[in-house]
Design goal:
Elements: E1 5-10, H1 19-33, E2 37-42, H2 47-55, E3 59-62, H3 70-83, E4 85-91, H4 97-105, E5 110-113, E6 126-129, E7 147-150, E8 177-181, H5 190-201, E9 210-215, H6 222-232, E10 236-240, H7 246-251, E11 254-258, H8 262-268, E12 273-277, H9 283-292, E13 296-300, H10 306-318, H11 320-333, H12 338-347, E14 352-356, H13 362-369, H14 372-376, H15 386-398, E15 403-411, E16 414-423, E17 429-433, H16 443-456, E18 461-466, H17 471-479, E19 483-490, E20 493-501
Parallel strand pairs: 1-2, 1-4, 2-3, 4-5, 5-6, 6-7, 8-9, 8-11, 9-10, 11-12, 12-13
Antiparallel strand pairs: 14-15, 15-16, 16-17, 18-20, 19-20
Helix pairs in contact: 1-12, 3-4, 5-6, 5-10, 8-11
């Protein structure tokens, strides 16, 4: 994906909400992680959201045309050609079949993000519907070569959630922490109804609740909400424009949320939730989450009184068993790799994940290490005995400063070990691919995934030392972002030295 441009066409307004743009941000981040560039074209975007995108390394271009019009399609296609965009992503209900057809006639490869089959025909190369209740019948009218990406397997989660993949929630017996998040705008001020419900709970044994109300960048009701908190003497904090959503989600015991894309974030985080339907396109999500057992659907927000809501909150807070079941079900539904799967579909690439090595990997790593090609490219080419390997493996497993990772590749619905990556205390990186997985394009994504883990430990730079004749490894490290810095000597052998410096400051957001 090195240097290839992804062009996104999406809008965000108070009544429309920010969901279309925010899920496209997740896709853009996955594209960036694969080495590409992303830009967004919009006809309506609030300034704070524009600044957020630009801080993520995503350039924002403004259109003068009416959103979804023929002129919009014409101008967007022209921008895509000027940028040399590899792919276009279109997300919004105002974009119809004619809009898709115009972009395809302009020679563009197109991913169309959809929620309920609103287009009369689908001309896109890929149609993505990440919702739980989606089905192929919604897309009966499409081109012969259109591919459908359907279900929570493709849920688009932003980069801030990636370190939480695989995290398991510990469900507390005494639940007292309530998170409220109702989208980017909450135009009908449903949050005020939630505050009244919390006030009703104050008259029960649950009167010592701690609340956190998250307001999106387009929410106009902050003054009214703060006044209500003061008048009811609630222990509720308000935060605006939160960009690290996993932290409040990991803090909370339950959540009250809208039935939009936030559902997939809550599922990944295993956060038991009560879902409002704030817009008709959220109904299927809320119903599907309840049917799966991952949340409780409150239904249309105007039909839920504050008294009824207080009762539902009380039942969920008091039942650890129900919260435990919701948490486990949600984390089975969404694993956090959806955006990477979509990019892999677009690029013909692969999806990998990394995990710390375990004692059970000792035999597997031994076999990989003694592969003839691996030994030939090592600075110590002699075969390794089992006893020697066992001693080394025990030391490696007990050395906190060593980052010892097993990389797994997704094959169907299973994850299979394919590679090991080690990053020593001094930042020296080594990688070896299992014999049966070479020449499959795994090395660069495996290396990049390991580099993300190392970054999370606060490391500022990495090093690699490669034999001059190992041209394949030299190419792999360069593609992963390493730069040659001269020569070195390892175990008396001449080698080439490479270095990678993690971006600092604002540039680090695009890492």
């Amino acid at each position: 994906m090195d240097g290839q441009t992804l062009l996104i066409r999406a809008d965000a307004a108070t009544r429309m909400g920010t969901g279309h743009v925010m899920r496209c941000l997740a896709l853009a981040q996955a594209w960036q992680a694969a080495g590409g560039r992303a830009e967004l074209v919009t006809a309506d975007l609030e300034i704070s959201l524009s600044l957020r995108l630009e801080s993520e390394g995503i350039n924002v271009l403004n259109l003068a045309a009416e959103s979804g019009s023929a002129r919009d399609a014409q101008d967007t296609a022209a921008i895509a050609r000027d940028l040399g965009a590899t792919w276009m992503v279109v997300d919004g209900y105002q974009f119809d079949a004619a809009y898709q057809q115009a972009l395809k006639r302009a020679g563009l490869r197109l991913l169309f993000v959809d929620d309920y089959g609103h287009s009369s025909h689908y001309y896109a190369d890929l149609v993505l519907n990440q919702n739980i209740e989606t089905r192929e019948a919604l897309y009966a009218r499409h081109e012969p070569d259109t591919r459908l990406l359907l279900g929570t397997r493709y849920a688009l989660l932003r980069r801030e959630f990636w370190p939480w993949r695989g995290w398991q929630r510990k469900v507390r017996p005494g639940a007292r922490r309530v998170l409220v998040t109702l989208g980017g705008s909450d135009p009908d001020n449903v949050a005020l109804k939630v505050l009244y419900a919390l006030g009703n709970l104050g008259q029960t044994s649950l009167g010592d609740l701690d609340g956190l109300l998250l307001l999106g960048s387009s929410n106009p009701h902050e003054g009214i909400l703060r006044q209500a908190i003061r008048e009811m003497a609630l222990r509720v904090r308000i935060e605006r424009r939160v960009t690290r959503m996993p932290l409040p989600m990991s803090w909370a015991d339950i959540c009250l949320a809208a039935g939009g894309s936030t559902c997939w974030e809550l599922a990944l985080m295993g956060l038991p939730s009560l879902l409002f339907v704030l817009a008709e396109n959220q109904r299927a999500n809320a119903e599907g989450m309840q049917a799966a057992g991952a949340a409780h659907n409150l239904g249309w927000h105007r039909d839920v009184s504050s008294v009824t809501l207080a009762g539902e909150m009380e039942r969920l807070l008091l039942s650890r068993e129900v919260r435990e079941a919701m948490a486990r079900t949600g984390q089975r539904l969404v694993d956090g790799y959806g955006a990477l799967r979509v990019v892999a579909e677009m690029s013909g690439g692969v999806v990998v994940r990394v995990r710390p090595a375990e004692q059970a990997d000792v035999r597997l790593v031994f076999e990989w290490a003694n592969d003839p090609l691996t030994r030939a490219m090592s600075f110590h080419p002699e075969p390794i005995s089992w006893a020697e390997h066992e001693r080394w493996f025990r030391r490696a497993m007990s050395t906190a400063a060593l980052l010892f990772l097993i990389v797994e590749v997704e094959e169907g619905e299973a994850w299979t070990p394919c590679c090991q990556v080690r990053i020593d205390q001094d930042g020296t990186v080594s990688i070896s691919i299992a014999p049966g997985y070479r020449s499959r394009g795994l090395a660069v994504p495996a290396l990049r995934a390991a580099m993300v883990h190392s970054r999370q430990r606060g490391r500022r730079e990495l090093k690699a030392f490669i034999k001059p004749e190992n041209e394949r490894s030299q190419k792999i490290f360069c593609q992963a972002g390493f730069e040659p810095v001269g020569e070195a000597e390892i175990s008396g052998q001449r080698c080439l030295a490479y270095i990678y410096r993690y971006p600092q400051g604002a540039a680090a957001r695009n890492e």
